[in-house]
């Protein structure tokens, strides 16, 4: 399965292609609540739009995504240092990379690791990325030496060695930070591959409110609003009533993702999706739905 965008809470990466198929082809794909860039990324690669317009009100997301596209996180040039708990809380409100890549569940608020796991994660990270050995790793990989070159290959080898040791402790959970950084690297690679063509899709990144948007003929508009009753994406929350009123007063189609919207909206697609929640990562089935604000969309 293709992975679109960056690691981000509530990402539509797993169903992005399905959602794009439900929308008409148009001149410009407008992603008003762009978040982790999954839908914009999928639309960009689909070849169905002349332009993709990504927008999010969060000022830290556009620089993070732009840096990834520009290759800042390419493993050829980027050897990520481990971000400690102290560094996370010091930098999370000014740096999107720290806030979203190094937070628990990409929530942007709490640090990625519990205090009981942080030491192991740092030692493993430093060994994989910087080849700095620590004897604290012996219970998990023995006295083996990583032979692979490159961060991704060394990470896979590290997993393999842990499995051979049959370690049962919580540290056997994925080295999730390196997986997230790999997504940043992959995003840059995929986007740059598409760029050389003279007919390639134009990409625009913007920071602002959905209320600032001005409709243009040929726009295909998508809104992945924060779902009611789920975790907040920002400290200020989201005014659902104001959004619904705005959408229902618009005389052009707006496609909206949610589990459920008021009866004034029309559901045009639904798909069950497994959602992992809580520290114990309990799997629940949720029905993702795509709505429009205007009926008879065909």
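Q: What amino acid sequence fits the structure above?
A:
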């Amino acid at each position: 399965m293709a992975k679109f965008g960056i690691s981000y809470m509530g990402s539509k990466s797993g169903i992005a292609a399905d959602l794009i198929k439900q929308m008409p082809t148009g001149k410009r794909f407008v992603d008003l609540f762009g978040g982790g860039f999954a839908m914009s990324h999928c639309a960009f690669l689909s070849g169905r739009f002349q332009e993709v317009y990504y927008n999010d009100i969060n000022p830290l997301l556009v620089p993070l995504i732009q840096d990834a596209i520009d290759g800042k996180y390419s493993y050829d040039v980027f050897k990520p240092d481990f971000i400690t708990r102290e560094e996370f809380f010091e930098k999370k409100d000014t740096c999107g990379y720290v806030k979203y890549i190094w937070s628990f569940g990409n929530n942007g608020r709490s640090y990625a690791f519990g205090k009981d796991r942080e030491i192991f994660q740092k030692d493993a990270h430093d060994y994989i990325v910087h080849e700095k050995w620590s004897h604290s790793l012996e219970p998990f990989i023995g006295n083996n030496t990583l032979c692979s070159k490159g961060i991704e290959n060394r990470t896979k080898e590290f997993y393999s060695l842990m499995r051979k040791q049959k370690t049962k402790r919580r540290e056997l959970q994925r080295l999730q930070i390196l997986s997230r950084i790999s997504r940043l690297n992959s995003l840059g690679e995929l986007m740059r591959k598409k760029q050389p063509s003279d007919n390639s899709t134009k990409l625009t990144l913007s920071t602002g409110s959905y209320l600032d948007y001005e409709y243009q003929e040929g726009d295909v508009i998508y809104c992945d609003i924060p779902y009611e009753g789920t975790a907040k994406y920002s400290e200020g929350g989201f005014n659902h009533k104001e959004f619904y009123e705005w959408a229902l007063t618009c005389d052009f189609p707006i496609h909206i993702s949610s589990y459920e919207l008021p009866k004034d909206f029309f559901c045009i697609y639904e798909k069950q999706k497994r959602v992992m929640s809580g520290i114990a990562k309990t799997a629940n089935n949720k029905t993702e739905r795509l709505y429009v604000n205007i009926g008879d969309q065909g």
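Q: And what stands out in the fold?
A: The mean pLDDT is 88.
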